[in-house]
Amino acid sequence: MTETLDTPQPEAHRKRTFGELLTSDLRALPVIIGLVALWVFFATQSDVFLTARNLSNLFVQSTVVGIMALGLMFVLLVKEIDLSVAAINGVTAVLMAKLVVEFGFSPWISIPIAIVFGAAVGSMSARWVTFVGVPSFVVTLGLGLALNGVQLLLLPQTARYGLLGTGVEVIAQTKISGASAWLVLAIGLAVFSSLVVSSMARRKKAGLSVAVMSGLILPIVGGTVFGIIVVAILNSHQGIPLVTLTFAILLGIGGYVLKETTFGLHIYAVGNNDEAARRAGIKVENIKMAAFAIAGGVAALAGVIAASRTLGVGVFSGGGIGGGTLLLESIAAAVIGGVSLFGGRGSIHAALLGALVIGSVQNGLNLMGVENEIRLIVTGLLLVLAVSIDKLIERFTGQQSF
Amino acid sequence: MPPFYIFSEEKVLLETKNGTPLISMRNIKKSFGSVHALQGASLNVHAGEIVALVGDNGAGKSTLVKVMAGVHGWDAGDYEFEGKPVKIKNPSDANNLGIQTVYQDLALCDNLDAVQNLFLGRELAGPKIFGSRVRRAACEVRAKEVMARMRLSNLSLSRPVGAMSGGQRQNIAIARSILWTPKVVILDEPTAALSHSAAAQVSSLIRTLADEGLGVVVVSHDIHHFVVEATDRIEVMRLGANVASFKSSDVTGEQVVNAMVGGDEGANLAG
Question: N or C: where does chain A have the smaller number of CB atoms within 10 Å of the terminal CB?
C-alpha cells in the first residue's frame, strides 16, 4: 500500500490515464471495437450485410436476447443469478397465448397479465433466496425446470397455439416509418438532453466543476449522431420496428434507473457489499426482490415479443426445455457487454452491445452460409474472449475496473 | 503523581476534563450467557477529547464500544448522554443521539465513489415520481464541505473507493461518520492494516475532529505508535473492567502494555 502523506497529489484534479479510463468510463471500448471489427469482417464476406434491410433485421433479431439480458442484468448486479428467465419467458408467452386463444382475452389484458405474472415469479424466487437462504443458482435452476413443466401443461394437445389473427402478431409487424420515426427520435433525444443538461445546470448552480466537453457536449452530440444514423438506416428500409423501439425505451428507462436513482445506486451497493448496504440502512432483501421482479417481468415481455415474431407459442417458446440457447445467450450477452457475475459492475449499454455482438455473429454467419454449429462455437469463444480482455486490461493497468 | 491509578472495588470516577461528559458510562455489566463480558466497566467521553480504549483480546473493550453504539444492550449500570440517562436499543438510536461508529471493516462499497459512499442509504434525492433521482450536485457540495473540514480536499470524490489506498478509504469512512454532525465518533482499530504514514494521516484527522469539539473514542492495539502519541487519555480494560487510566502525555507504551497484561514492571520502572 503506498501512501502519500508528505506529498499529497492534487488527486481530485489530476488527469486520468488511458488505463484508468479503460477501466472506468471507457470500459465499453473493447466491446465496441470488437463489434466494429465483426461488422467490417461480415461486410467483406457478404454484400448484403450492411444493407438497411439486413441491419434492420439484425436489430429485430437482437431484441429478444437484448431485452432478456437487460432484465437479467439487474439480478447479476445484485450478485445473484436467475437461470429461470428463459423458462419465465416461455411459460408467460404460453399463458398469454392461452388466455387469448382459449379464453378470448384481448392482448391488451393478457400481455400485462403475462408481465405481472413474470414479475411475481421473479420476486418469489428472490424471497426464497433471501429468506430460506438457498443460493439463487439452485432456486432458479429448479424453478426453471418446474416452469418448463408448467409450460407443457398449459399447451393444448397440438402443443402449439397459433397467434395469427389474434392481434398479438401486430407487435412484431408494426413499424414506425417516415416523419413519425424522426419524431420518436426527437422525443427521445429531448428527454435524454434535458436530463444531461439539468444535472450539469445543477452542478454549475452549486458552484461545482462542470466538464462541458465530456459531461455535456459529448453525450448529447454522440447520442444525436448515433440516433440519427440508426433511424436513417431503419427508415430507409421500413421504419423503426416496434420491438426495437420497445428495447430502446427499456434501455433508456433502465439506464435512468441504474445511473440516476437511489434505487439504482442501492443495486450497485448491494451487489458490491451487501453488509455495508445493510448497515447503511438499505433493505437488501427488497432491493434483491425488485431486481428479480424486473428480470421476470422483462423476460415475460421478451416472451410476448418472441411469440409475436414467431406467430405462435409452443414447446420451443422460451428457448425450449432447459432454456436452450435463449438462456445461455441472454447471460452471455450481459457478460460480453461488461456485466460482472460477481455483482456491482456493469452499465445499461451492456445489454445493447452484448445482444448486438451475439446477433451480429448469428446474422453474419447465416449470410455467409455457415452452419449453426460454427455459430455456437464462435459465440462461445467470443464470450470467453470478451471477459479475458477485461481481465487483461485490469492486469496491465493495475486498475480494478468497476 | 503516579502515571496511573489502579481502581479499587469501589467505583472511582475517572479523571477527566471538567464539565459534563458527552458520554458517561458507569459500572456497565453485560453477559452473553455464562460469559461475563463486562463486569462493571466505566467510561467518560468529553467534548474535544480523544479517549483510547485498550486491552488484551477478550478484555471487553469491543463489547463496551458496541454497547455505546447500540449494537448490544446492557444488563446493569448507567449510561448517560450529555448528563441525561438514555435508553439505546439499536444503532439508529445511537445515531440519533449523535454517536457514530466507524467499524474496522469500514463498510464501504468499492464500486461506488466517495460521495456515493458518504451518502449511502441517506441520499439527497428528488421527488419519488421521478424515481428519487439522486441530487448528485447537492451531495457533492456537502461532501466537499466535510472533506474541507477534515483537510482532505485532495481526495478524489468521483473515483471508486476500491481504487484507493487503505488510508484514503479509512478517511472516507471517517468522513461518512461525521457527515451528519455527530457529537461522538467511535473508531474501531482505525490504524490496523495501515502503513506508518497512513496511520499518521489518520491520527491528524482524528485530532482535527477533536479540536472541533467532537468526543472521539478509539479502540486500538497499536499502543506504541498510535495510542500513546495520538490520544489524550488511555483507558485500560482487563477482564471486563477498567484497570487503569493514563494521561497519554505522561505514559510510555511499555507502561500501558503492562497495565493491559497485568504485569507491574512498568509501574516499578516508572517509580
Answer: N
